[in-house]
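Chapter summary example.
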Amino acid sequence: MDRDTDDEAVYKLIMTDIGSDVFALDYAKYAKPKYEICPTEIRHIEAMHAIIHRWMYEKYCQYVENKHDRENIEYRSDVEECVLAETYGVLLYVEQLVEIINSYSGIPKEVSATIAKYIRKGMQPELSIWKSVFIVGTQQNGYTQEQAQQIWEWLKIEGEMTTYRDIAAIAAFTTYQCYWLKTYYPNEYKDALANHLV
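The structure predicted for these 198 residues follows.
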């Protein structure tokens, strides 16, 4: 199988397939996200898996709306537009959270990763220590104290529901592989599944 992930025929099947025999999409509740997101690139499948992984309903709705109405996406700053453009303004991945913390405040990425971990786990005592560091650093980068406070609160809320992109990427590529096989070798794919279930 070609490792490219831009085959139009595969994405056409993804958007029209009504089966439930594909890795990580083998439950009825996953049908709606697939049809509403309408993936045409591997990053769309990654986002779908990230959303499904923790079932982030509000982010799912926002992602679908923004994906199909990109002109009306509003970004708070160039920082967020740069980091979140690929996910249509929606914070989905821990890696994005780390990048935003670092870009706003200048806190080194290794430390930003630790802060991201605290955010995801809701570790308030640890976060209270880093809040002032983030706000001071963000002010030094040209933002007001009020803006820095708002950004911090937004990161705490949105960052708690994020997932690691590498997890979503592995699941997405496996899903794509399954659909590639269903597209070009449907009978063999069906037989392989039947043999696996025996």
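To summarize the output: The chain has two domains: 1-90+165-198, 94-162.
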